[in-house]
Design brief:
Glutaredoxin, five-stranded mixed β-sheet, 5 helices, 5 strands, 16% strand
Amino acid sequence: MKRFGPLAVFIALVLALSWRLAHPSGTAVYSQLVDRPVPALTLPDAAPGQPPITAAAFATGKPQLVNLFGSWCVPCIAEAPQLKHLQSEGVRIIGIAVRDRPEAVAAFLGENGNPYASIGLDRGSDAQVALGSSGVPETFVVDGRGVIRRQFIGGIDEGALPEVRRALAEAAR
C-alpha cells in the first residue's frame, strides 16, 4: 500500500489543478483606482463639436459616468441604447474612444447615437491604462469630487441599469 501513496497524492494534485483550470475564480481585471481620484487626463476631442477632456471634467460636483468605448467594438454598439437611456435621465457621461480615429468615432455616433457630454481620443490607450481598464467597453462611476467609486467591466445591458443607477446615487452622497 505504501507504493501507491505517492501515486495517490499525484492524482489528487492533478485533479485539483485540472478543476481550478476548468473553473477559474474570475477573469476580470479590476482597477486599483476605485476609491481614488481619476488620474489627470488631457485628451483631444474625438468628434467634431465635442469638447476635449481635461482634468476639470471629472470634478463637477455631481456624479457621472466615464465610458471607455471603441467604434470597432461590437459590445459597445449593444451598450449604446442603455447609455442613451441614462443620458435621457440626466446622467452626464464622458466618453473615451480607445485606439480609434475621429472619423470612425463620428460614424459610430451617427449610427448609434451620442450619449456623451464630451469625448476624448485615446489613440495609444494611455488613458485606458492610467484608469486601470483592461478593455472596452468599461464604465466608471465618478463622484462629484472626481473620485472613482465603481467600475463596470463589459457592456452595460438593460439588466445592469438598476445597479448603475444605484452606484450613481451612492456616489451622490
